[in-house]
Amino acid sequence: MTQDTARPTTRDLGGPAPTGTATAPSVTPTHHRTDKQGTDQRADGPWADVQRTRRAPVRGRVARALVGRAVRDLDLQLVLPDGTVLGSPGAGAPRLEISTERFFDRIGADLSIGVGEGFQAGEWAPAPGSDLADVLTPLAERLTTLVPGWLKRFRRVLEPSHPADEGGDPEGARSNIARHYDLSNDLFATFLDETMSYSGARFEGAEAQPGEDLLAAAQRHKVDGVLDLAGVRAGSRVLEIGTGWGQLAIQAAGRGARVHSITLSAEQARLAQERVAAAGLGDRVTVEVRDYRDIRERYDAVVSVEMIEAVGYDYWDAYFAAVRAALVPGGRFGLQAITMPHEVMLDSRHAYTWIHKYIFPGGLIPSVEAIEEAAARAGLRIDGRRRMGDDYARTLREWRSRFRAGAERVGALGFDAQFQRVWEYYLAYSEAGFRAGHLDVWQFGLDAGAGSPAADAGGAR
C-alpha cells in the first residue's frame, strides 16, 4: 500500500497564508493515493476526497444494515433517503437526515473518515430544529459498540494508516503543530475569549468579576488550578511545555514566578510574546520556539496544558522523561490532559481518523492508565487530580456558538464556507465526545521525589 502525504494545509483549506514568522507547510497540489484495495484515487484540491464519488456497493449495503441495527436503541431518529425513519419513537429525539445512498458507500469504504466527509459533502445533516452535537452525542455514547467485534478485527486492514511524516519525531511534530496552530491567530480570536485559551475551562468554582466574560473567568480558574497542582508561587522557576497564546505564563508570572515557555508554533509564540509584553511581564517570561526534547535547564515546576495529546503514542516515555529531567529534586509537574478509555485508546492507536486528516495531524489522546504508567516509568508520582469533562463540553459549546456567530468575520479572513463546515463539525464532534463520556479531561499534580532526575532520565532525548 502507498499513500501520498499531500493533505490540506492553511492555504488549501481556504485560508490565507500565516502572517508573521510562520511558514505555511508545503503541500503537493494534487492528492494521489492508492487505497487498501489498490484503487487509484486522483482528484485535485483540498476537498478532493469530499467531492469524489465513492463507489463501494457491497460495503455500502453492509454499512446501511449496520447503521440500521445500531440506531434501534439510540435516542436518535435516522431519516433515510427514501423517507424511512429508524431509531427512537420519541418525539423529542434529535433527528439526522441522510440525503443520498452515496453516504453508505462512503462510510462503507472508510468509516473513521467517511462520516465527517459525508457531513462536509452535505450527504447528511441534522434535521431542522436538531443541533449537530445533539445528533452526534447518541452515536458517541455507543461508539465502542456501533461496529461489531468481528469487523473490528479487520480494522488495521480496512482503514488507512497514518502518513509517515506525521510522527512525533522533532520534524514531524513541528509540521503537525504548524498545520493547526499556525493557521491564523485572528481565526482563533474569532471564537476564543480574551485570554486566548484553547483548552478546557473550569467552570465549577469560577466567579466572573463585573464586566468579565464567564468563559474567560473559567479559563483563568483552570490555569490557577494547574498552577496550584504544580506548586507555582513567587520565586518559582517554571517551564511551560506548550505556550498556547501565553495566558498560563502571564498568570504564573503574576504570582511572582519566572517562566520559560516553549512551543513549536511560530504564530503562537509571536502573539504570546506580544501579550506578555502588554501585561508588563517581559522581564519574567521568556517565550521560545523549542522542542521539549531540547530542554537542558532545571526548574522547580513544569506545567503543560493539553499538549500531551500531540506527542504521539511512541513518544510518551520520552515526554515524561524530559519532564523528569527538567525538574529539580522535589519539583512538581502540573498536567492537563484530554483522555479516553484505555481499551478504546489501545484499539484506536493506529487509526487514521477524520480528526487527523483535517484538524490535528499526528498524535493520540492518552488514557488515564497510560499517563499513570508512563509517568511512573519516568519516576513521577501522581498525588493530585481533578476531572473536568462536563466543563469541556460546555467550553466547546461556547466556542462553536461564537464560531458560528463570527462566520462573516471568519470568511473575511479568507476561510471559505467549506473550511467553516469542517470546523463546525470538529467542534460539535468534540463536544459530543465529552457529553457522552467517550472523552474526558483531567488535571494532574505529579511529584518528582527527591532523587536525581539527571540520573533517571536517560530516555529524554
Which descriptors would you attach to this protein?
2 domains; about 450 residues; 13 strands; globular; disordered C terminus; four-stranded mixed beta sheet; Nonspecific Lipid-transfer Protein, Chain A; single chain; seven-stranded mixed beta sheet; about 15% strand
What does this structure look like?
This protein is α/β, with parallel strands linked by helices. The longest helix is centred in the last third of the chain and has 20 residues. α14 crosses α17. Strands 9-8-7-10-11-13-12 form a 7-stranded mixed beta sheet, with helices on both faces. A 4-stranded mixed beta sheet has the order 4-3-5-6, with no helix packed on it. 42% of the residues lie in helices and 16% in strands. The N terminus and C terminus are likely disordered. It has 2 domains: 124 residues, Nonspecific Lipid-transfer Protein, Chain A (2-Layer Sandwich), CATH 3.30.1050; 289 residues, Rossmann fold (3-Layer(aba) Sandwich). β1 and β2 form a beta hairpin.
Summarize the structure.
With 461 residues, the protein is of the alpha/beta class.
Which architecture of the largest domain does the CATH hierarchy give at level 2? 3-Layer(aba) Sandwich
In the CATH hierarchy, the third-tier topology of the largest domain is known as Rossmann fold
Tally of structural domains: 2
Please identify the top-level CATH class of the largest domain: Alpha Beta
Protein name: Cyclopropane-fatty-acyl-phospholipid synthase
Region (Disordered): 1-54
Biased composition (Low complexity): 14-25
InterPro entries: CFA/CMAS (IPR050723), SAM-dependent_MTases_sf (IPR029063)
